[in-house]
What does this fold into?
Amino acid sequence: MKRVVVTGMAAITPLGIGWGGVAQKLKSQVTGIQRMAEWDKYKGLNTRLGAPVDFSRPAHYSRKQIRGMGRVAMLGTYASELALLDAGLLGDPILQSGRAGVAYGSSSGSFDGLIDFTKMLLNFDKGGLNATSYIRMMGHTCPVNISLHFGINGRIIPTSSACTSSSLGIGYAYEAIKQGIQTVMVAGGSDELSPSQAAVFDTLFATSTRNDEPDKTPRPFDKCRDGLVIGEGGGTFILEERGHALNRGAPIYAEIVGFGTNTDGLHVTQPDKGSMQVAMRLALQDAGLDAADIGYVSAHGTATELGDIAESHATAAVFGNRTPVSSMKSYIGHTLGACGVIEAWAAVHMMNEDWFHPTANLENVDPACAELDYIKGDIRKMSCDYVMSNNFAFGGINTSLILKRG
It folds into this structure.
C-alpha cells in the first residue's frame, strides 16, 4: 500500500482565508458569527444568525470560466487553486496525465440554479432557464467545475453527504492513492450560506436564536447552548503519494494514516453514539494505532443537544477523559459540506505549531455530556504526533480521519 501525504492546503472561512489571520482569531477567541439582518424578511425563520465569508469572484476568473459555477463551486474551485499553488502543482502536467483526480463534495449545488427551476414550476414558464442552470445546481457541481477549471482528467469521486461531504472526500481520495489508483488527488468540500440551509435546521428546532448575541453562540458541549449556527466556506487538501512528493521536493504538512467511515442504518437525523464510536475505531485500526497515540481530537461539536451528548459519549468510550478535545464550529458555525476539511486544515496547522484552540463559549459543560478533556478558556500548548478529526452527518454517515505530523 502507498503512503499518502498532504502537500498543499487552503481554506476559505468566516475567519478569513490565510492561516495566519485565522490562527490569531482562534487564539483570541474571536468568532465569525454575525446577525443576518437580510433574513428578517423570512416569516417563520427563528434564527437570524450566520457565519458568512468575505468572498467574491476572483478578478482573474473570466465570465466564461465561471458560467457553470454557482457560489458553492466557486468557493471550491478557488480553494483548490490556492491549495494547488501551495503544493507547487498549479499548472503541473500531472493534472492532465490521468494520474490526478478529484474527490470533492457539498451538501447541494447552488441555490440560484435551483431557483431557476423552481420559478419554472411555479410560473409554468421555462423562459428563466439557461444552459448552465442545471450545472450550477447539480449535486456534483464542485468536483466537475474543479476538474474542468484545472483540466484534471483522472478519477472523480463526488461526495454529497451533508456534514461529512469534505471529510468523506478526503478519505476516499486517501484510499485512491493508497491503493495505487491515483498519484495526486484534489480533495475537500464547500458550501454556500443560504437562509434555506438555516431553515432545514430551524424546522428541527436545532438553530441558535441568540440573535442579539452573535458572539455568545454557538456553544458546543455547554449546558446553556441553544443550537447551531450555519456558516459557509470551502477547503482543499492536495493529497499525494509520498514517494512522488519526496521526489519533487514538495512540502509535507502531514500524512494521512487512518480513515474510518460507516453509517448507522437507524435514523436520518438522530445521531447514534455506537456507530460514531465504530468510525473512530475503524480509523485507529486503519492507522495501526491505539487510542493513547492520538494527541488531540477535533470534534464535530455542533452545539445541538442530541449531537453533543452522543458524540461526547462515543469519544469517551474510545479515549476516556485523557485526550484533549475542542470544536471549531464554535468559531465558524456549521459550514456543512466544508466543515470536515476546514477543521482538519486547522488541526494540521495547530499540530505543527504545538497549540490547539479551545471551544469558544464553553463555560460550563453539560452534565449530560461525557467527561472529556475539553479545551476551554485558553489555547492548550502541547506537542503531539497524531490528531483525529471527526464528522457526523444526517443519515448516520460518520467519518474519522487520523493525520500524522509531517
